[in-house]
Amino acid sequence: MKRILIPIFLLALIGSCSTEKTSEQKHIQPVDSSISNVEIAKDIAILADEDRVDTIVFLTDKTYHFPNYEMKVEKIDSVYIPNPYEGDSYLSKIALESLSLYETQNFIEKYKVKTQGMYFKRKGRTLTLSLANGKTKILKDNLSDDGDDFIEYTYENLLKHSNTFFINCKFYESSGQLLVNRETGDEQYTWGRTYPNPSETAFISLNEGLHAGEGNNGFQFISLDNRQYIARLNIEGVDWEPVTMKWIDDTTMIIKTKEWKTSNIQDDFITKFYRITFTLKN
Question: Per-residue pLDDT averaged across 140-150, rounded?
Fold first, then answer.
């Protein structure tokens, strides 16, 4: 099952240089004496980042501290946040025609054939991506009645600077995106729509899961380090959900949220805006 939410497991370095598997069987290979404890600790920290999910009841004006990152949150006045397709007259039709999610994703793929058709091919239920090394990566739909395995892929975009494919994913009761590195084939499933920072070295993925009750509710901060995607922060909202966002610079974003009022009645919410800055701890 390709799901993003992974239970939180505590990884610990015990005694010498030996390491323990998590219950998901993620582990670091046995090491030799040439590898320092500092390097091992960094590897363990990366695995802990990917598995950790932190819940926040309401976003507030404060600095949140996590094992490897700090997240400074500041409430601000409302600001204009453009939709992801603004500036492209053809894709802007998506909003005008009120297409469903499935219709939107197929609409985008057919459009991208005109400008990026050299990077992907569609044949029935198989999507083939062309990698930079001349190899290909095959993504095959699975329409099994078993909801855990159900998935449909559609092509959305290739970011040239980071060599990152954006692939839309439709699961049985939710949706998300898949990031694929065109150089390595490395991949990272995300909670929802994903936004690259200006230098394409980090990504924010949002999903409005509180209102619909489908998938994860919150956002992820994903970094691209040495051509590898790492989910550094997984923030789950309790009484709020992210709606949309925009990057200000490589480490700062503005996010629009909906927060339930105390009544918790559907559609009884308040819209708020926050500036969020991410800082890597030394």
Answer: 83
